[in-house]
Amino acid sequence: MPVDETKLNTLMERIIGDLGAAFGAALVVLGDKLGLYKAMAGKGPMTPADLARETRTAERYVREWLNSQAAAGFVTYDAETGRYHLSEEQAYALADEGSPVFIPGAFQIISSVVKDEPKIAEAFRSGKGLAWHEHEAGLFEGTERFFRPNYAAHLVEDWIPSLDGVEEKLKEGARVADVGCGHGASTVLMAQAYPESTFVGFDYHPASIERARRRAEDVGVTDRVQFEVATAKTFPGDWYDLVACFDCLHDMGDPVGAARHVRESLGSEGTWMIVEPRAGDRVQDNLNPIGRVFYAASTLICTPASVAQEVGLALGAQAGEEALRRVVRQGGFSSIRRAAETPFNMVLEARP
What angle do CA 297, 93, 112 make, to 5 degrees? Predict the structure, then answer.
């Protein structure tokens, strides 16, 4: 068949854009690590020499980095003055760690999984998994930095209030388990918002639990928060008012087994809050920019993590609500509803 030049040119334009984006991931990580974005935030127009002096870096490298960022639209360039600056919007996304759209953590994840490419290739060949703890360590920090802004923006303000009667219990004093807590960002956020309640974060990864304990100490919530090493099928306790799983159920090898254990751990009036990537139930529903990101992450991180565990169901990060509902129902829950959503997440409420 002859090549359609118009279609080929359209494809090549997309590929060129992706080449720039792929290189750009490393450049964003550099800008974040070296403090280049933060040094520009709120400072007004700067020359490369100004920024190099501010960050104690080499001017020639900084100038090239600035040009790359200007070409990407991440930095604004004034051709008349030869100076560069961060707009309010650029600073909000790239320099402000308290912003709900702070994004460098996502690029940290990308940098990490690129380093793991040989391990992923071997998993493709063998059909075996790649466990979370087997990844390059930057993945763990990047994941926490990527998800934390979204949790900070929505968890206490929107998601918990959307659950039937849960916020009232937390204000009065409830017992909460945060399963698959990672570095503990979600656990600590809840503990800060609800000082009358007690929280336990569980994760199978010891290094993440150590990091979570340090976070709790840093913000002064160790009187009501503890972190322990345990899996979703073995964490202790049978009296929780709320069990939460944030962006991790699809990573589990046996999510049905995890659901059964959550069911057993809840009090008679308890609630399971399941936060998962937002997705449609059909592949064609997810063929969009957000779906592209989640399918990529699922290929490189989530699916290998599940395959590495017992059962290896491999739901994937774009499992969709119906697949998640099947898992929850098989785990023994009779009531399931979508309580809240954002462009990136869905929040399911499950009750016995």
Answer: 30
